Amino acid sequence: MDADQAFEIVTNGKSLGWYSYYTFGLQLTTQVLVAFQMCLMVILTPILKNEEWPWHLSELQVSLASSIYMLGVMGGNFVMGIVADTYGRKRPYFAVLPLLIILQVFGTLCWSVNSFLAFRLVSGFLTGGLGLVGFVYQQELLPSNVWAISGNISPGVFAIGIAFLALIGQLFDSYSTILLISSLPFIFSLLPLFIGIPESPRWLLSQNRIDESAAAFVLLANKNGIKMDPPELKSPPAGEAAGCMMIFNKAVISRVTIMGILWFSASLCYYGLTLNLSGLHPNPNVSLCLSGLVEIPSYIIAFYLMESEFFGRRRSTSLSFFGVFLGCFSTIFALIHHAGQEGSSSAVLGSAMFGKLCVAAAFS
């Protein structure tokens, strides 16, 4: 019996059991936390650039803070990916999540520009690690036949988080208050998750820890109200140990290179549009909210395109990136053509939102 066959028993032949819905829902709150952290500088920038702020930032320092943060995200993705493959999904997840929340509390105590930059670097590292481990962990606790839809629901919740962050920025103008409101409430989703949720049975099986994997499946089934005997799981086939050096295999290196270039381009466009919204609309909270909401239909469209027989994955990806090209270049054209004209913000914002819709679909 493989993992998917075991999941059929865990869910009693349904797509998901009630406990799977419960844990998936709680884990989705992680995506809101990650969205808050990734876009926090958009709503903090007006506060930190105010000359009345004790250690106010210059335009260059604002850009530096965003760059340092994304450097931390890259490091967190790399390091936590290795840690999660070595030590499992559960332990890194429940180590990074509370650390990120606690760090935001300490972030209210920043006393200088340099301390703020250090805070953002560490915050980026933890956010990058949490985003990676959290997504993989929640997917591996689900049967593979729902991965297409769950993989689009997760970034959809991320987009809703961006919209809520804009609301926080509109309601509050205190640096400390924004940091605390965007982090402390997630303690209430951390505690219920910590009690009872098992390690990923798929990861345990990949490590040839068959008895522990079977016990995790039994626990999930019991939580769903289904009586299940320990399944007789198949040992994973012998072969090369999984690791980062696998990308240099001739069969995957060209594919990894192409996808790496595509993801680099998508990230550049996505965060370029998201983190520089203050120049696209007089009120950055309005443009931030719209940029989050516009992603929601993109994930719905992406799901149906991916699952359609005609488009599939390859054509959906090509179509999305062509839309990104049109959106980004139309934004540049609108900025040049409507410079200094009344109503120019609407043309620029509309073009940027179309690009954001397409690049969100490309990520799916």
Summarize this, please?
This protein has 364 residues and is mainly alpha-helical.
Examine the secondary-structure arrangement and name the CATH architecture of the largest domain.
Answer: Up-down Bundle
Predict the CATH topology of the largest domain: Growth Hormone, Chain: A
On the 0-100 scale, what is the average pLDDT? 87
Shape: globular
Low-confidence stretches: none
Portion of residues in beta strands equals under 5%
Main location: membrane
Membrane topology: Multi-pass membrane protein
Domain Major facilitator superfamily (MFS) profile: 23-364
Protein name: Oidioi.mRNA.OKI2018_I69.XSR.g14795.t1.cds
What are the main properties of this structure?
single chain; 364 residues; mainly alpha; Growth Hormone, Chain: A; 2 domains; 16 helices; 0% strand; globular; MFS_dom; MFS_sugar_transport-like; membrane; MFS_trans_sf
Overview of the molecule:
- The protein has 364 residues and is mainly alpha-helical.
- It has 16 helices and no strands.
- Helix 2 packs antiparallel against helix 6 (113-140), helix 4 packs antiparallel against helix 5 (90-107) and helix 7 packs antiparallel against helix 13 (284-293).
- The two termini are 30 Å apart.
- The model has no long low-confidence stretch (mean pLDDT 87).
SSE inventory with pairings:
Layout: H1 3-10, H2 18-38, H3 40-48, H4 59-87, H5 90-107, H6 113-140, H7 147-171, H8 175-181, H9 187-194, H10 201-206, H11 210-223, H12 250-275, H13 284-293, H14 295-307, H15 312-337, H16 344-363
Helix pairs in contact: 1-11, 2-6, 2-7, 2-9, 4-5, 4-6, 5-6, 7-13, 7-14, 12-16, 14-15, 14-16, 15-16
Pfam family, one: Sugar_tr
InterPro entries: MFS_dom, MFS_sugar_transport-like, MFS_trans_sf
Keywords: Membrane, Transmembrane, Transmembrane helix
